[in-house]
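Much of our argument rests on the idea that a fold can be written as discrete symbols. The record that follows shows the chain in one-letter code together with its fold in token form.
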Amino acid sequence: MFLPDTDPPPSADEPTGIASRAAKSGGAMFIAKSVRFVFLFFVNFILINLLVPADFGMMRYVMLIVGIAGLLNEMGLTTAIVQKERLDRESLWPLFCISSLWGAMLYGAIFFLATPLSRFFAVPELVCLLRIGALMIPAAGISAVQRAWLRRRMEYGKLALIEMAAAGFSAMVSIALAFAGFGVWALVAGNLLFEAGISAVVMVVCRITVTPFQPFGALRSLIFFGVAIVISRLVDYVLCNAPFFFIGKWIGKEGLGLFSVARDLAVFPQTAINAALGHVLVSTFSRIQTDDEKTAAGFGRLLLFGSIFTLPISLVMAVAPYELVKVVCIVKKESAWLEAAPLLRWLALMGIPYVFTTFSSSIWISRGKVVESIYVSSVIGGTVVAAILIGEQWGLTGICRALFLQALMVFPPYVYIQYRLTRIPVTVFFFSLVPSLVAGGFMTAVLIAVQCLIPEYAGGRHFMVLFGGGILGVAVYGVTLMFFFRSSMRHLRALMRMLLPNWFRAVKKKEDQPVA
């Protein structure tokens, strides 16, 4: 399809139209992304049993560098295109050219910096891995503008289906290469094919027609806003990935691999929710950015939704990390990965406050609070580095404990800062969390009780604790919500009706049919 000349003109019922489009887009993206992340979990389950921690550590080195370049690659243009109130076709072709050329230049920089970077981390084999893995940068850059346009038009279902197809193909290649003994190259090939596959399909589905270049002044606002977004995301990137840099430098690839897998599991709920709804929320909240009441109501429901569905997963990982590692490593001897269990416990606890702040950044960006976001992230980043430096003397477990304490201390001021930036009352934030926290307390008690009741010498104890305790704990969690927080559950059902309108209509129609 070709891009239309400009956005459709606003109509009298635009708020209703936006809500409907956001609901359909959010529902499509949520379903598709949920399927993809469940699939991704099982793929990683297989790869963990085929590879060793050092392979994941080597891949983390590559992704650290590629991740920074990836933020620079899109130049913030994808968010700028989504956030801009009106946009015409003439702006897209020059932005596409800039993005493509910039991606090629970044790859060239990484190609020549691969040798000094491998010396910095003291990992000689990193040179070739970086030069091949960094091809993800130009592969993603050539489709950045097209992806942004699809997001702007809230065609997230189409994007999600493309990502699912690319994920399936890349996963099959990764598993095949891992079975064949290619080690870390199985991970590199999978990530590279994922980006290349998405770009190839997106460029066919959403073609940009060639137009004359506009003067720089016509694109200045988009580019400047994009640069501000890049700076904000670079700060956030350093905040999230500082532990990987320090561990990769001080401890080495084995420790980095253990920490990487543990942290990826710990933040899996947050990552899944953010991937499913993050871009949709920026598009939606950008269109109601001046309406404080609607923003607060939407944020409260989303926070309720996110906390209720993600907290049980974090609690299982925090209470039963050894059992989880033993179940995941059912083929490979768990001794290779057992050292990741104590890391997983503390990182899962750290991930709970992060889940509670998942949607804040979307609202900040939608309101153009980019500079303020940079300041806040810089301060939080400083506390993360301080926690790592303090915890490092006790090894990997010490670093994870320090990161958990840092997350707890930063959480209250972060909530207050959000209020100052968005005017969303603090009461909305905490009332949205009460149901999941109370129900989570009962669930934790059940998980601990199951661990105590099943003796250590029982055969298959880790399976019984993980699955038996998990099922019983989730049941208690759900019963607590239904009996003590009926009002919150009504809000949750209303949000689910928006996300899955067709499914609910079909169920309602079936219920309304007269019984013969």
